[in-house]
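This section describes the prediction task in plain terms. A model, or a person checking by hand, is given the sequence of a single protein chain and must write out its three-dimensional structure as a string of tokens. No templates, partner chains or ligands are provided. The sample shown here is typical of the held-out split.
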Amino acid sequence: MFEEADIHFEEAYVIDGRMKKDEAQKMVAEADVIWLSGGDTPTQFRYFQKYGLDIVIKQHNGVIIGMSAGSINMAKTSICTLSCGHTKQEIYNGLACVDVSVEPHFIINEVPDELIDLSEKYTIYGLCDESFIVCSGKIIEFYGEIYKLSHKIIERV
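The expected answer:
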């Protein structure tokens, strides 16, 4: 995906269960860029915790990119919805890299009641595919088709 966008890295490593905990922490701590992939969101988060990567990622000063499940887990409040394909609704304290909760793969013509109901308590940004949010300090920039769901109101950002 990065190669197709003409973004090249000198080195790239996959951190997964085949790696020892201390080795994984060291590689993540020393990385210039961390990419949190998609997949099963709560499983991914439990893996971060099991390997102590949650703490390492929170302390990281470089670029952190979240895609799909990774973008949900980057939030202060991670919201896993049935409508986003999870087997059960789960809301938990995420990595807190950003204070923006997202619903990836959002389709404006198919907003489920579950998201509307959750928007009473949480502000959720619906990210349509090919859209993204960049957070740098207190600056938040929105790119592409993104919707803010708050207090049962949906508005395009």
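For orientation: The radius of gyration is 16 Å.
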